[in-house]
Amino acid sequence: MSDDAMAAARLSAAGGGRGSKPWLRVLAAGFAAFIPFVHAATTSSNFTVQVTLSSQCAATNSGTTTVSFGTYTAFQGTAQGSNSVNLTFQCTRGFAPVSVAFDTVNGTATGVGVLSGLQYTLTAAAPTLVAGTAATTATIGTGDVRTYAVSGSMPALQAGTCATSTCGPATHTRTLIVTF
Amino acid sequence: MKAFPSALLASISVVAALGPGEALAAHARSSFNVQVQLGNQVSPGSSFCRISDMPGAFGAIVTVVCSTGVVVQIDAPSAFSSSLPIHGGAYRFLPPVSWAGVMSDDMTAGLGTVTSWRVIKLADRDLLEMTVRW
Question: Torsions phi, psi of A6, nearest 5?
C-alpha cells in the first residue's frame, strides 16, 4: 500500500482531519458509501404452522341462580309457574352443542322433579346465540355465547308433604348438562 | 400376512364401534336451585263446626257452634232424601254401608245425618269435609 493510500485509510477511520488533502477525503467517502451495498442481501425459509382445535363449551354462570315457584297452596286449582333463569355457556365459535338434559340426581333427565312432595317439570328453551368475535393479530377474539332459559311448572291439585301449616322454602339443586 | 395381536385387534374393534359423535362427546354443566314454599294454611274465613253427642232418636234439635261464632241449627230430618243442602236444615244423605266393613256388591245404603262439617277455603276453591253418623 502506498503512503497516500495508508493516509487515506487512516483519515477515513479518524473521520478526516484538518489540513488533509481534499482528494483523500473524497476517496474515503467513496469507500464508506460502497460498504453497505456490498453486504445487503436476504434469503428465506418457509415452514408450516399447525394446530388441532378441540371444540369446547363451558358454563359461564357465576353464582347459583334460583328457579323459584314461590308459595304453592295445597290443592290449588291452577298450575304454578316459576321464574325463568338464564344459564349461559361459552362455546367454540361455530360449534353447536348436540343436546341438553337435566341431571338425574334430583329428578329425571327430562326435568321432572319432586320438592316438598310437589311434582314439577323444568323446561329448557332453545338457546339464544350471541356470536363471538374472530381472533386477529391484535386480539384473541371471543367465543359464541349460548343462553338457555330454564323455567318450571307445578301441576295443580297437589297435596304436598308438610307437617305444619307452612313448609319451606325448600330448595334443592338441579343441573343443566350440555353435550357437545 | 402377519396376524395382528389379539389386543390390538380388540382396540381397533372398539374404536370402529364408536361413532365420531360418541368419541368426541363431552359435557358442560351449569347448576341452579329449585325452590318452593308449600302452604297448608287455611284462610281466616274458614270455620270448624262442632256439636255435642247426637241424641239417638229422630226429632231432636241440635245446635252446632262453629269456631267463627256462627250458630247453625240442625233440625230433625223430615225426608229420606239423599241430600238436603239447605243452610240451617238437616243435612242427610244415604251413604254406602257395608256391615262387614268391606266394600263389596252386597253393600246397602243407610240413612245418615251430617254431624259435623267444615269448609276449607283455599285460594281458588272451597273443600267441604263432612262427618256422618247413622
Answer: -65, -40
Q: What angle do CA A150, A152, A158 make, to 5 degrees?
A: 170
Contact A166 B26 (CB under 8 A): no
Q: How far is A150 from chain B (nearest CA, A)?
A: 10
- Give per-10-residue mean pLDDT for chain B (134 aa): 42 42 74 89 52 52 56 50 41 58 58 68 69 68
CB atoms B29 and A178 under 8 Å: yes
Each residue of A103-156: pLDDT tens digit?
999 999 999 999 999 999 999 999 999 999 999 999 999 999 999 999 999 999
Helix (H, G, I), strand (E, B) or coil at A26: helix
- How is residue B111 written as a grid cell? 240413612
Q: Give the count of alpha carbons within 13 A of A118, CB side only.
A: 38
Say if B25 is an interface residue toward chain A (CB within 8 Å): yes
Q: In chain B, what residues touch A104 (CB-CB under 8 Å)? A: none
Residue B36 CB contacts under 8 Å (≥ 6 apart), including other chains: A68, A69, A70, A71, A72, A80, A115, A116, A118, A120, A154, A168, A169, A170
Chain B hits for A75, CB-CB cut-off 8 Å, are: 122, 125, 127
Q: How far is B43 from chain A (nearest CA, A)?
A: 11
β partners of residue A25: none
Its pTM stands at: 0.55
Nearest CA in chain B to A176: B30
Q: Can you tell me whether residue B69 is helix, strand or coil?
A: coil
